[in-house]
Design a protein that fits this description.
alpha/beta; Amino acid/polyamine transporter I; Rossmann fold; 2 domains; ten-stranded mixed sheet; 27 helices; 10 strands; elongated
Length: 748
């Protein structure tokens, strides 16, 4: 059973603006652990040109993703969950859930990453007389401490970032002062991976990449912002540009200073002070406070963002409902502790580099989806998509493709595994038949595709034989009890045409019972769709309110479809009363005037018709009924249930002298039609009429095709009596009337 995921949850109290709510957590997460503890290692292994290339590649992808996220955020009211909220409301809840769970893992692993970084920075202060610093144990303690503070108050966590930002700025100025006050040497221009990065360039990029992922920290606070639509784009873009500028400046400074050698930069020694302390003025005084502050700020950003993703997943029914509960201060306390528990488990991954690679892969999958969402929204061009920041679709698509390429080059197997995990999550959520109360870009995408196809189809001449498809409009009073009739219609179009199932309701939409009539129409439509799904049938359902059935049939038949996909064939089940059959014959005359073919199907029972081995087609050689009957018989035989059936085309001639000409005509018709069928010309025996001959030959056939003539006004009662007698005793009879020259005629 599908579940409605549009439940209303208590929203946290929004109170943060652009600077404190988005820019500060984003820029401090960018200028965090990797900047202090791994930037020198990057430069020492790859050299200055490749270090700058790593910064440009990483910052380029994040900048494009920041633009895409900003565009989406300015087009909607962003709620709790940040990136997850935007993806799920753009690409649908299933894909949002598939990316939301990895996003939660991103935030969780980021908390572990920053805990490892803080533990490494504290390791030099570990008493040397004791055992080596227990980095993993220290990381676990840091995670518990940060989780406790974040779960208590987001406001306290964010306000602590102001003095931290001052400390980070002071450390950067100290680094600049140290370089300018010392000696210089030529930068190293070639890589030396043998020093400490034997896995090569993409390994180094994977370790560094989490440094630039911090711009999403502000987006993760979307539920706590006063004005997310305004704050997210401004704060995000400003943070990305700030980080890119500083990250391009730092390798230039480290590459030219003679205070450290490239070999020293490449060394990772957790028992020694960070390399920055050897370069910056008063390094211990300025570097440690800035580094600790930046790492703590980044950790707090992850500790605040991860629970809010989990809270949003719970609000949408993708995580246990209790995780959506908030405290009196508006904090998702339970989700915060769940995030902390997951981060503790991730400590088992080993060290900073190992966690960093996993964080990179998960963040890149997120960037792929965010950019794809923005690109599709732009391409589809829904009227509701009116962002104040306009990003060309090809820019967002470039960011998406770039993230995929980088993911693959870092580790093809981890890339494929991440994609497989998200695909499995998506398929699982699809199976749960999640329904959302909002629209998403998929509907617009299919609408745009359908519009493009229909406009091109309109330009073509779809009335030629090669283009003919049986677009069937099936009228039935009770579809759930006549599924065999629907199945037969499905067999006739064999997934090559369109089947529309229509039920007419007698009524007048202008009278006082309008609301009652509309309610009944909606109920019938739901019942029809449910019946089709239950029996695995593919068809469109329609319910129309008409004042009169006879007029309603012709009006609906003319109005159904457009742009070359109009219903060209109208199908009815066999009526139980003769007067209803007479009405159908009269309606058939009107349908012929509108160039709609008519099929009248009589099944032995309304249960599933027997599937056997023989299809008989009786042709009088007049009009164009034979062409349409032969095409329908061929379409029927294309279905797996009928693939072993044989088609027999039979013709009755009154005299032996007519047999030869008819034989040649039949042989030529079947040959030119290229339909595997056998033929038989029968000379009517003296004293026997055509009905007797037909019954004698086709009594055991599984399906018998017969032509219908267009009778003149007033002839309906007599003709109804005749065809009732004709079809009596057959398993299944399909009577066909081709409306004038058959548009799909098999022979020109």
């Amino acid at each position: 059973m599908s579940r409605n995921t549009g439940s209303i949850a208590v929203e946290p109290i929004a109170r943060f603006g652009t600077f404190l709510g988005v820019y500060t957590p984003s820029v401090l997460t960018i200028l965090g652990v990797m900047m202090y503890l791994r930037f020198g290692w990057v430069l020492g292994n790859v050299g200055l040109p490749l270090a700058l290339l790593i910064v440009l590649l990483s910052s380029g992808i994040t900048f494009i993703t920041g633009l895409s996220a900003s565009a989406i955020s300015t087009n909607m009211k962003v709620g709790v969950g940040g990136e997850y909220y935007m993806v799920s409301r753009s690409l649908g809840l299933e894909l949002g859930g598939a990316i939301g769970i990895p996003l939660f893992l991103c935030r969780t692993l980021s908390l572990t990453l920053y805990a490892f970084g803080l533990a490494e920075s504290l390791a030099p202060f570990w008493p040397s007389s004791l055992v080596e610093p227990p980095i993993q144990l220290m990381s676990a303690f840091i995670i518990v401490l940060i989780t406790a503070v974040a779960g208590r108050s987001a406001e306290l966590s964010l306000k602590l970032q102001l003095p931290i930002m001052l400390a980070v700025g002071a450390s950067l100025l100290a680094l600049l002062g140290g370089v300018l006050s010392g000696g210089y040497h030529a930068p190293e221009m070639v890589p030396h991976y043998e020093r400490s990065a034997e896995a090569g360039f993409w390994y180094v990029l994977a370790v560094f990449f989490p440094a630039v992922t911090g711009f999403t920290a502000g987006i993760g606070m979307s539920g706590d912002l006063k004005d997310p639509r305004r704050s997210i784009p401004r704060g995000t873009i400003a943070a990305v540009l700030t980080g890119a500028f500083i990250y391009l400046l730092i390798p230039l400074l480290l590459a030219i200073t003679d205070r450290v050698t490239p070999e020293e930069l490449a060394v990772i020694d957790t028992s020694a002070p960070p390399i920055w302390t050897q370069v910056a003025l008063l390094g211990f005084v300025f570097v440690y406070p800035g580094m600790w502050g930046a790492i703590l700020s980044s950790a707090f950003g992850s500790a605040l963002g991860g629970p809010r993703v989990l809270q949003a997943l719970a609000n949408d029914g993708l995580a246990p409902a209790f995780l959506a509960k908030t405290s009196r201060t508006g904090q998702p306390t339970l989700a915060t502790w769940a995030t902390g528990a997951m981060a503790l488990l991730a400590v088992a991954l080993g060290d900073l580099n190992a966690v960093g690679r996993w964080v990179t892969i998960f963040f890149l999958t997120l960037y792929v989806t965010l950019n794809l969402a923005a690109a599709l929204e732009r391409v589809v061009g829904d009227p509701s998509y009116r962002p104040t920041i306009r990003v060309p679709w090809y820019v967002s698509m470039t960011g998406s493709l770039g993230a995929v390429v980088v993911m693959f080059l870092i580790n093809r197997w981890v890339c494929l595994a991440a994609i497989a995990v998200e695909a499995l999550l998506y398929l699982y959520l699809r199976r749960r038949a999640l329904r959302s109360s909002w629209g998403d870009v998929r509907a617009g995408m299919w609408t745009a595709t359908a519009r493009f196809a229909l406009l091109n189809l309109r330009k073509l001449k779809s009335d030629r034989a090669r283009n003919f498809r049986p677009h069937i409009l099936l009228f039935t009073a009770n579809p759930s009890s006549r599924m065999a009739l629907v199945r037969m219609a499905n067999w006739f179009n064999q997934n090559r045409g369109i089947l529309t199932l229509c039920q007419l309701v007698r009524g007048n939409l202008l009278d006082e019972q309008q609301e009652c009539t509309l309610g009944k129409t909606s109920t019938l439509l739901e019942e029809m769709d449910s019946a089709l799904d239950e029996h695995g049938m593919v068809a469109f359902s329609e319910v129309h309110t008409v004042p009169d059935f006879d007029v309603g049939v012709t009006c609906v038949a003319q109005a159904t479809g457009f742009a070359g996909l109009q219903a060209n064939t109208v199908m009815f089940g066999w009526p139980e009363k003769r007067e209803n059959l007479e009405k159908l014959l009269s309606m058939m005359r009107a349908l012929s005037r509108t160039r709609r073919n008519t099929i009248l199907a009589r099944l032995q029972s309304w249960e599933e018709p027997p599937v056997r081995k023989r299809i008989d087609l009786w042709w009088r050689g007049q009009q164009h009924n034979g062409d349409l009957m032969l095409l329908l018989a061929h379409m029927l035989r294309l279905n797996p249930e009928w693939k072993s059936a044989r088609i027999f085309v039979r013709v009755i001639v009154p005299r032996p002298s007519d047999a030869g000409a008819m034989e040649r005509r039949l042989r030529q018709m079947i040959s030119e039609a290229r339909i595997p069928a056998e033929h038989e010309v029968i000379i009517r025996p003296p004293g026997r009429d055509a009905n007797q001959v037909i019954h004698a030959r086709s009594r055991d056939a599984d399906v018998v095709f017969l032509g219908l003539k267009e009778c003149a006004p007033g002839e309906e009662p007599e003709y109804a009596r005749r065809i009732e007698k004709l079809v009596e005793g057959f398993h299944t009879t399909i009577m066909v009337r081709s409306a004038g020259p058959f548009a799909g005629r098999l022979i020109d």
